[in-house]
Design goal:
Elements: H1 2-22, E1 28-30, H2 38-41, E2 49-55, E3 66-69, H3 72-82, E4 92-93, E5 113-116, H4 125-134, E6 139-142, E7 159-163, H5 167-176, E8 180-182, H6 192-199, E9 204-207, E10 222-225, H7 228-237, H8 243-254, H9 256-273, H10 279-283
Parallel strand pairs: 1-2, 2-3, 3-4, 5-6, 5-8, 6-7, 8-9, 9-10
Helix pairs in contact: 4-7, 6-8, 8-9
């Protein structure tokens, strides 16, 4: 505990020192480390915009006056936790971002399905195991943790456990898989691994709640399921999904370049429009240079007739 206290204190000192060198009035400070930065940035609240981006934790951890969530589902979930019934006008939803060059697009698939994630019962690994067993299909399982902690006495014969997957191993597994399983049984905030799969041209078989429905287009980039029968059906029908559509959707909406534009539009709008002013002053504000709203656009794959 002592070492954690010392590390936290040192982190705060380093952040404050570097911000004092760089910060000017009206700047935005984006606290990507969440509430661990609350104390470090508190001294800049009067002259800067303090923003929490990428919120993927519950409402009790939120501290900043401006918040950027990873999905609309999670924003509503946090608002519910905090008892907020009137949405904050200067909060926003901006998705996670990905370097498309980290993943290799591939249409030629090998004969296996993939589960890539923690060996956590809440991630729904057992659902993937049972669906592929019924479909007589191979399942490769990759991720941190011990698969033996699941409810099986022995690992089923159709399952291959390959352990932790670094970036290169993950890239290879994703590009050759027939589909990625993301059958989480809890409210997934975003589900970044499915975007990694889509960038690889690999469709996704997922749950149908949390932030997942905002990212996995049912029938276009994969299938969303709510029970074991549906997961089995998706496993047997995954060839109906186009690898090209998966890549187009992921690249056009979740690349670093695309998400950077969303952040830029949000920050410009925040600085132009947020004022501690009266309603009369707000009505008199000049909107002749109103910014575009393209930052909310979604770019869907072109469907050939």
């Amino acid at each position: 505990m002592q070492s954690q206290h010392i590390g936290h204190h040192k982190f705060k000192q380093n952040v404050q020192r570097e911000l004092e060198i760089r910060v000017e009035a009206g700047d935005a400070i984006l606290c990507f480390w969440g509430n661990s930065m609350e104390e470090a940035v508190s001294m800049f609240e009067e002259k800067c915009f303090i923003i929490e981006p990428g919120i993927g934790y519950d409402g009790k951890g939120c501290f900043a006056p401006f918040k950027i969530f990873e999905s609309y589902a999670h924003m509503s979930y946090v608002y519910g936790q905090l008892g907020i019934t009137h949405p904050k006008r200067y909060d926003a939803v901006i998705p996670n971002y990905f370097d498309c060059d980290d993943f290799e697009y591939c249409e030629a698939k090998d004969n296996y399905f993939l589960y890539l994630g923690r060996m956590d019962p809440n991630k729904g690994l057992v659902i993937a195991v049972e669906a592929t067993k019924k479909a007589n299909a191979k399942l490769i399982v990759a991720g941190p943790g011990d698969i033996n902690h699941l409810s099986y006495k022995t690992i089923p014969s159709h399952v291959e456990f390959v352990g932790y997957a670094d970036l290169n191993k993950r890239k290879h597994l994703l590009k050759k898989a027939k589909a990625l399983f993301l059958p989480t049984i809890v409210l997934e905030v975003f589900g970044g691994v499915m975007i990694e799969a889509m960038l690889s041209g690999t469709p996704v078989i997922s749950s149908d709640w949390g932030g997942i429905p905002e990212n996995n287009l049912h029938g276009l980039t994969g299938f969303r399921c709510r029970n074991e029968e549906q997961f089995y059906w998706a496993t047997k029908n995954i060839d109906k999904i186009s690898s090209k559509h998966c890549r187009e959707w992921a690249e056009n909406n979740y690349s670093m370049e695309r998400v950077a534009k969303m952040y830029s539009s949000y920050l410009i709008s925040l600085k132009r429009n947020f004022r501690h002013q009266t309603r009369e002053q707000t009505l008199q504000q000049d909107y002749s240079e109103l910014a575009e709203l393209d930052w909310l656009n979604k770019y869907y794959p072109a469907i050939e007739s």
